[in-house]
Specification:
By secondary structure, this protein is mainly alpha-helical. The chain is 49% helix and 4% strand. The chain has a two-stranded antiparallel ribbon with strand order 1-2.
């Protein structure tokens, strides 16, 4: 790219535009990395927070088998009583298989 024909003002505007685009791309890359890390964590039965902290959640380390689709903090191992959010899900006629983490 030949910049010799640009005046100082045009170069400053171009620089500002480049900086905005770089910030935008950085945010997109971070979001993509978070999605990929979350997917890997789920494949191993962990939350992303558990991997980052190095500590297993108070659930005794049982693998998460079910996760709420819009609130990732709501999980269930499939053992014991069904949590309230699972009961609500099923009361709406939805299948437990829709919540399964594989």
């Amino acid at each position: 790219m030949d910049l010799s024909n640009y005046n100082s003002q045009q170069l400053r505007e171009l620089q500002a535009e480049i900086e905005r685009e770089l910030k935008k791309r950085r945010r997109e890359e971070i979001k993509q990395a978070q999605r990929e890390l979350r997917d890997v964590a789920e494949r191993f039965g962990f939350t992303l927070q558990e991997l980052i902290s190095g500590q297993v959640a108070a659930s005794g380390g049982r693998a998460v088998r079910y996760r709420h689709p819009t609130d990732e903090t709501k999980t269930w191992s499939g053992r014991g009583r069904k949590p309230h959010w699972v009961k609500e899900w099923e009361a709406q006629g939805r299948s437990l298989d829709e919540l399964r983490v594989d």
